[in-house]
């Protein structure tokens, strides 16, 4: 057996720039003690997860020893060199990726250019399974690429969930922005204030204080106003029935919707449509 022989399975894709996150390549290797790569650079992000054995990763004047359960990241255009341990060579799984979402997602993890290592991944086996799912989904059809990207998002979400240094509380403006975004996407369902608070990970009383301080109204009033404004738009722009509009803005009971509408607008939905519809 040649000294540099190793077990390798890999797959490379073409660029998929219509995705905000896309897979460049994916694979896994069981290396022998002489296997090295570099020094060199990559033009994309590349994560390796160590499943067994040991190895060394050198970049930025630092050398990192990695063992089972660790991961290392190669940043685009960052010179690196890595090699297997002589006595206990590593086995690793990797995925290369890029896209407009990539840097934002990586920034939310414990990876950094100064310390591109993630030691003792809590979700290590799940991460490995995600990498395998990407490999098993390999292909050039839109369905293949979409499935690969989905598994990549899942893997990165595990790194984010397991991070320790980047978990900071949201600012007040972020709470308000996320609450409004949630309402804008979910108002047509029967969501409650408790649902909004749970989405943000805060208590109902905390949510109430944020809205009163910064929007001068309660979250319940904001949600009601948002729904009724959408109802007004539908009354003027469509020929949907009152009950259909009620359902479309999150009210299953048409009579209750009409009562809330009258409280907000000063007219019934039918009167509003008759006076304003063109």
Topology summary:
Blueprint: E1 7-12, E2 22-30, E3 36-40, E4 45-52, E5 54-59, E6 62-67, E7 71-74, E8 80-84, E9 91-98, H1 102-107, E10 117-118, H2 124-136, H3 142-161, H4 172-186, H5 193-200, H6 204-214, H7 219-237, H8 242-248, H9 254-265, H10 269-276
Antiparallel strand pairs: 1-2, 2-9, 3-8, 4-7, 4-9, 5-6, 5-8, 7-10
Helix pairs in contact: 2-3, 4-5, 7-9, 7-10
Description:
By secondary structure, the chain is α+β, with helices and mostly antiparallel strands. Helix content is 43%, strand content 21%. It has a six-stranded antiparallel sheet, with helices on one face. Strands 3-8-5-6 form a four-stranded antiparallel sheet, with no helix packed on it. Strand 5 and strand 6 form a beta hairpin. Helix 4 packs across helix 5, helix 7 crosses helix 9 and helix 7 crosses helix 10. It starts with 6 loop residues before the first strand and ends with a helix. The N terminus is likely disordered.
Short recap of the structure:
This protein is 43% helix and 21% strand. The protein has 10 helices and 10 strands.
Structural class label: alpha+beta
Order of helices and strands: EEEEEEEEEHEHHHHHHHHH
Largest sheet: 6 strands, antiparallel
Beta content comes to: 15-25%
End-to-end Cα distance, whole Å, is 82 Å
Radius of gyration: 26 Å
* Unreliable stretches: 1-7
Largest sheet strand order: 1-2-9-4-7-10
Cα shape:
elongated
């Amino acid at each position: 057996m040649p000294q540099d022989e190793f077990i390798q399975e890999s797959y490379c894709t073409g660029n998929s720039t219509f995705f905000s996150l896309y897979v460049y390549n994916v694979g896994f290797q069981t290396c022998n003690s002489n296997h090295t790569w570099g020094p060199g650079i990559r033009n994309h992000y590349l994560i390796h997860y160590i499943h067994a054995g040991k190895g060394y990763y050198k970049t930025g004047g630092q050398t990192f020893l990695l063992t089972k359960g660790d991961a290392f990241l190669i940043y685009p255009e960052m010179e690196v060199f890595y090699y297997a341990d002589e006595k206990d060579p590593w086995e690793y799984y990797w995925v290369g990726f890029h896209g407009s979402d990539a840097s934002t997602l990586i920034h939310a993890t414990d990876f950094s250019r100064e310390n591109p290592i993630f030691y003792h991944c809590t979700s290590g086996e799940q991460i490995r399974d995600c990498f395998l799912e990407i490999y098993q989904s390999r292909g050039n059809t839109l369905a293949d690429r979409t499935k690969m990207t989905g598994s990549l998002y899942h893997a990165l979400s595990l790194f984010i969930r397991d991070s320790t240094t980047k978990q900071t509380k949201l600012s007040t403006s972020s709470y308000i922005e996320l609450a409004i975004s949630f309402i804008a996407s979910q108002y047509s369902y029967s969501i409650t204030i408790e649902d909004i608070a749970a989405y943000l990970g805060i208590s109902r009383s905390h949510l109430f204080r944020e809205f009163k301080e910064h929007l001068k109204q309660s979250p319940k009033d904001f949600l009601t106003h948002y729904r009724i404004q959408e109802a007004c738009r539908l009354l003027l722009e469509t020929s949907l029935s009152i009950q259909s509009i009620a359902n479309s803005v999150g009210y299953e009971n048409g009579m209750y919707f009409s009562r809330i509408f009258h409280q907000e607008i000063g007219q019934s939905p039918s009167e509003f449509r008759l006076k304003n519809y063109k």
